[in-house]
Structure formats: structure tokens, C-alpha cells
């Protein structure tokens, strides 16, 4: 990215604005694991010159790398989606004790409404639990400014700082004033200080006292922090709000008095009291949990919140207006848009695996990735999905619960990136504790679900350097798995044969399905065949439709069509392959026993 220093205002998404803020704050080291809605922070930052940005194998490692960089006196940041903080919580809670040297910021990108997540947790609680201050921007402009502020606060108070965004902040674009880079007050170099960096109980005990003293100073700071501000208006209604909810509240009640909190933790008690005393009715407008509301109530202030504002899902100006005013505001007429259930892409290698796996009627302990879409009909191929890496542990637990009866009936499926993220330890458990379930690693050469990021098994870094490629089969063997096989999931006959053998083996097996994601540029560049249905041979049996491939369409016959074409009256229609969608994966031709699916010539 060429950095437009001369242009002073740019339209940036919240994620791009955070990256710009990192650049202006002279961040040296940034580490992340992809996850919607946070992914583009590192992707944008990596394009600036002279910075180091990496994909870590998981969020815990990302935080450890960034903390290490901070220990060595440079500014650093770790970014993740909300559930990533669960994975990274261990180093985060103790980083609160060690504090920092170079400014250290952790971005938690929350996902109210679960646009792309397995839960809707509210990570403001993490700030309070870990005793780490948290800033909450309410648009792209603030996303950049708060990022810079977070680094200043981190160094000033010797603490990691959370920057919390939500999907609408991360992905919406807004005007951002671009600034110059300003050098941080610290300089690189590791200074030995075991009492600060080595968290033995004897040291940690003293650091806890430091943390509490820091919290006391931060509480004082919060009272005069200029991003906690009162906007006086009509005093009959006072809204306390933060983040994107501030925009909704302002739009719904442009004349109301508003206390906008730029710092979600710690909260400014005196300012809240002053605000509440100046208005006749106080309402907290916040998405998800009654986090601010609980705090305000603890101050003995009469306040409304989740009794009138939903606790589940995102808000919008209509919901806020309706909740506070009590008037029923009708929804706009829904647009006439045909429903489009999510589906695996045409030619996706995962489809071949799940089609075959279905034949075995096994319990499929699943995981998170594109392949989770195989849960939906017609594949209906996944029975559990909890969090990244859970499939292998879940499968082993099911095996242990069922005992010998589980032989041939329990399978774990997990993507390459997810296996590296947090599946490896589950596999070690299965080997160590003498399991016999089958683990299938779906290696599509990328982290597809979040937009095709590189990972340790792709041989390329975030900053597009060639690197050593993690050898997944060798890794599995090193763990102690004796039966490791690689199959091409588009070759469903071969995949079925290997599954049939391994499912019933009284020992752990790993089957790696290896075929590139169809969206990878190197795959798209390859010349691929296109298949077509020979209309005269198609009997309308729909065997091919069981794949659920979006390229296979169904053309129903009108009342006269069957007779006119000389077919059996029972035939309801024929299959057709959309040549624009067909990826030439060759999964469907073997399914047609009438040999009606052939390669299109010319
Ligand atoms: C703790 C956590 N971090 C990140 C994510 C976001 N996420 C969901 S699946 C996934 C990786 C998917 O990649 P892979 O396992 O290779 O499967 P693919 O999508 O390529 O089939 C990521 C990063 C998440 N859900 N949870």
C-alpha cells in the first residue's frame, strides 16, 4: 500500500483505520490469527513498509509474540476475534501483571448477531476480569485515534490495553484524518528485570499490588479522559452508551443528552453520577450484556437498560427508539430477495469427503471452517461443532463413552489451519491415551473460511515470503500416529476405500484429504475441464443432486415435456450443469450410473 501522507482524509474501514493507527503509532511487531471481523487489521498493516506482521498459529501465540516484542521495547499489537481472547486468555491475564515496556495493545473484535461466529460473548467482561483498560471506538475515525491513544496509555500506565471493536465498527467505512508518524518514547532493547518479567509467585504477588495501584490511577484518569464525554441536550432523557451503540442512540434521539464512554474499563464513576444527576431519566444503550448498566446500578443510580433494550443480537436506531419510547415502529417492508442458504463452493474438495463419509453412518465430531457448511442438507455430514480444535477431543470423549461399540463409528474432521491452531494437542491425547478413532484433516492449502490466509502449512508468510512448510503427515507420525494416509477427496472411490479400512482399525488413524481450495489464485489459473449433462441420457434420478453442488441445477418438466421427449411419464425433469459455475472437480460424473455427465468439448 502506498501511504497517502499528502491526502489528509481517507475513507477507511474500522479495521483499516486500526492498521493506520498502528502505522502512525510506529508499531513494529504485530501478530494475529485470522477471525472475522478482525482479519483485515493485520492484512492492511502488513502492507505498510518497514513493519513486521505475521499470522500466528493461534491467538495465544499471537499475544505471546506481541508481548515479547513489548518486553524488548517496541510497540506491538495482537489482533483477534472475540473467541480468540478465550484462547489467548492465559498469557493475557498474566501480561496484566508483567505490564509492558513498548506499548502493547490487544484488539478484541466482537461479533454481536453472530454474523460469523459460534457465540455472541461480550468481551468487555475480560477487561474487568484481567484488570486491563479497554477503549471502545464508535467509528473509523475513532478507531484510528483510539489505537494511537491505546499505545500512549499502555506506556503511561505500564499495562496492556484492550481495543474493542464490533463487526459494524470493523467493517463499516468512514472518514479518517491521516496523521504523521510519531516515534514512541521507548527504544528497543531487552532490559533484564526478573521481578517484572518472571512471574514466580514471589514476584507475581508484588506485581498484583502494582496492578491494583495502576487500577486506582486509571480510575482517576477515566474521570477526566476526554473520550468519556457528556453531550448535554434535552435533559428529560439521558443515554449512557459506547461503541457503535452511540451512533444508534444519536440517530434515534438526536436531541437527548448523552454520556459517551470511550473507555469501557474502568468506568468513570464521578462522571456517571454527574450525568445521572443532570437528567430526569437514565437509559443505558449497549449491545449484548448489561455491562455498563450493572456498573451504573452498583452506584445506586436508578437506570433502565436490558428491561427495554434487547440483550441478544445487534441493535439499530429502530430498536433503540422503540425500546426507549415504547412506540411500536414497524419494520420496513422486507425486500423480495430469494433465500440463499450458505453452501460449499462448486468444486470444493470438502464436498467429496463428506459425500463419502456419509455412507459410513459414523458420528462425525466436527470443527470450525468452511467444512462446517457440510452440516447443512443435502450433505448433513456433521454432528458436533463447539470451538476451534474441539473435534478431536470431542471424538475421543465419544469413543470413551461408548467403549468398544465406538469402533468404526467415530470420526473427527478438522481443517488444516484449525488442526495447527488447536487440534494437535487433541491428537496427542488420543494417541497417548490409546484411542482408536479416525481423524480426518482437510488440507485445502489455506485458511479458507476467513478469506484464504496463509498458515504454517502453506509455505508462505503474511508478508508473502516463501517459508518452510509444515509437513502435516510427518507431524502426525512424530506424535505417534502409525497410520497416516493422504487421499485426494475428489477421487471418492479411493477416499471410500481408505475410510473403510481405517475406520475399523483398532488404533488411531489420520487421513489427510489434500486438494486446493477452489478460490486459491493458483487453482483458478489452472486449466480445468467443464462437465455437462447429456440430456438424452439423464433419467432425472437426482443422484448427482445429492452432492449439493451449486453448479448442478434441476430443470423441471412442464406437463407436456416428458411425453414430447419420449421419456417415462414419471420423469419430473432433468439435471443441468451451469458451465459458469462448474469447476471441473470430477466428483459428479462417477455418481451417474447412466453416464449422462461428460466432459464438455471445445
Ligand atoms: C478461536 C477462534 N479463532 C478464529 C476463528 C475464526 N475461524 C473460524 S474457522 C477458521 C479457520 C478455518 O481454516 P481451516 O481449518 O483451514 O478450514 P477451511 O475453512 O480452510 O476449510 C478460523 C480462522 C474462530 N472461529 N475461533
List the defining traits of the structure above.
single chain; alpha/beta; five-stranded parallel beta sheet
What does this structure look like?
The protein is of the alpha/beta class and about 600 residues long. It is built from 20 helices and 22 strands. β4 (about 75-80), α4 (about 80-100) and β5 (about 105-110) form a beta-alpha-beta unit. α3 (about 60-70) runs parallel beside α4 and α14 (about 350-355) crosses α18. The two termini are about 40 Å apart. Thiamine diphosphate binds next to α4 and α16.
Low-confidence stretches: none
Per DSSP, the total helix count is 20
Proportion of residues in extended strands = 15-25%
**E-strand count:** 22
The mean pLDDT is 96
- Note the gap between the termini: 41 Å
Derived structural class: alpha/beta
Gross geometry: globular
Report the major sheet: 7 strands, mixed
Bound molecules: thiamine diphosphate
As laid out across the biggest beta sheet, the strand order is 3-2-4-5-7-6-12
Spatial extent as radius of gyration: 28 Å
Helix content class: 25-40%
What would you say about this model in short?
This protein is α/β, with parallel strands linked by helices. Strand 2, helix 2 (40-45) and strand 3 form a beta-alpha-beta unit.
Amino acid at each position: 500500500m502506498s501511504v497517502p501522507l499528502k491526502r489528509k482524509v481517507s475513507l477507511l474501514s474500522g479495521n483499516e483505520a486500526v492498521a493506520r493507527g498502528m502505522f502512525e503509532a510506529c508499531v513494529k511487531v504485530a501478530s494475529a490469527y485470522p477471525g472475522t471481523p478482525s482479519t483485515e487489521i493485520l492484512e492492511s498493516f502488513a502492507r505498510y513498509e518497514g513493519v513486521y506482521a505475521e499470522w500466528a498459529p493461534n491467538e495465544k501465540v499471537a499475544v505471546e509474540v506481541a508481548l515479547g516484542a513489548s518486553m524488548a521495547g517496541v510497540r506491538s499489537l495482537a489482533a483477534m476475534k472475540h473467541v480468540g481472547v478465550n484462547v489467548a486468555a492465559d498469557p493475557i491475564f498474566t501480561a496484566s501483571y508483567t505490564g509492558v515496556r513498548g506499548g502493547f495493545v490487544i484488539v478484541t473484535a466482537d461479533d454481536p448477531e453472530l454474523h460469523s461466529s459460534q457465540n455472541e460473548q461480550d468481551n468487555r467482561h475480560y477487561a474487568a476480569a484481567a484488570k486491563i483498560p479497554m477503549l471502545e471506538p464508535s467509528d473509523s475515525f475513532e478507531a484510528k485515534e483510539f489505537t494511537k491513544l491505546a499505545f500512549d496509555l499502555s506506556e503511561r500506565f505500564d499495562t496492556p490495553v484492550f481495543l474493542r471493536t464490533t463487526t459494524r465498527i470493523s467493517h463499516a467505512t468512514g472518514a479518517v484524518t491521516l496523521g504523521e508518524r510519531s516515534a514512541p518514547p521507548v527504544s528497543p532493547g531487552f532490559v533484564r528485570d526478573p521481578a517484572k518479567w518472571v512471574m514466580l509467585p514471589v514476584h507475581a504477588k508484588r506485581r498484583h499490588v502494582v496492578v491494583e495501584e495502576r487500577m486506582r490511577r486509571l480510575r482517576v484518569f477515566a474521570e477526566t479522559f476526554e473520550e468519556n464525554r457528556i453531550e448535554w441536550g434535552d435533559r428529560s432523557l439521558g443515554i449512557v452508551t459506547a461503541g457503535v451503540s452511540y451512533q444508534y442512540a444519536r440517530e434515534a434521539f438526536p436531541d437527548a443528552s448523552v454520556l459517551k464512554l470511550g473507555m469501557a474499563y474502568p468506568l468513570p464513576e464521578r462522571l456517571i453520577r454527574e450525568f445521572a444527576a443532570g437528567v430526569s431519566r437514565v437509559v443505558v444503550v449497549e449491545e449484548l450484556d448489561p455491562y455498563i448498566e450493572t456498573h451504573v446500578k452498583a452506584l445506586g443510580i436508578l437506570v433502565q437498560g436490558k428491561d427495554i433494550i434487547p440483550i441478544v443480537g445487534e441493535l439499530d436506531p429502530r430498536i433503540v427508539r422503540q425500546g426507549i419510547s415504547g412506540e411500536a415502529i414497524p419494520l420496513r417492508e422486507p425486500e423480495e430477495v430469494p433465500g440463499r442458504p450458505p453452501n460449499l463452493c462448486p468444486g470444493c474438495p470438502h464436498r467429496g469427503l463428506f459425500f463419502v463419509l456419509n455412507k459410513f453412518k459414523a458420528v462425525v465430531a466436527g470443527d470450525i471452517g468452511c467444512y462446517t457448511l457440510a452440516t447443512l442438507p443435502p450433505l448433513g455430514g456433521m454432528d458436533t461443532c463447539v470451538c476451534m480444535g474441539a473435534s478431536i477431543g470431542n471424538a475421543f470423549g465419544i469413543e470413551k463413552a461408548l467403549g468398544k461399540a465406538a469402533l468404526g463409528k467415530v470420526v473427527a474432521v478438522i481443517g488444516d489451519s484449525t488442526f495447527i491452531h488447536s487440534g494437535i494437542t487433541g491428537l496427542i491425547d488420543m494417541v497417548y491415551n490409546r484411542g482408536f478413532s479416525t481423524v480426518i484433516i482437510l488440507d485445502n492449502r489455506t485458511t479458507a473460511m476467513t478469506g484464504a490466509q496463509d498458515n504454517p502449512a502453506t509455505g508462505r508468510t503474511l508478508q508473502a515470503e516463501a517459508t518452510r512448510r509444515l509437513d502435516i503427515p510427518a507431524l502426525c507420525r512424530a506424535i505417534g500416529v502409525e497410520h497416516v494416509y493422504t487421499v485426494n477427496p475428489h477421487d471418492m472411490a479411493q477416499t471410500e476405500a481408505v475410510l473403510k479400512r481405517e475406520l475399523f482399525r483398532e488404533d488411531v488413524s489420520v487421513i489427510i484429504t489434500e486438494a486446493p481450495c477452489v478460490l486459491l489464485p493458483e487453482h483458478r489459473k489452472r486449466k480445468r475441464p467443464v462437465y455437462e449433462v447429456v440430456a438424452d441420457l439423464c433419467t432425472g434420478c437426482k443422484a448427482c443432486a445429492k452432492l449439493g453442488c451449486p453448479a448442478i441445477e434441476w430443470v423441471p418438466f412442464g406437463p407436456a415435456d416428458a411425453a414430447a421427449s419420449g421419456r417415462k411419464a414419471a420423469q419430473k425433469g432433468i439435471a443441468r450443469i451451469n458451465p459458469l459455475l462448474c469447476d471441473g472437480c470430477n466428483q459428479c460424473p462417477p455418481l451417474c450410473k447412466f453416464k449422462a455427465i461428460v466432459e464438455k468439448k471445445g
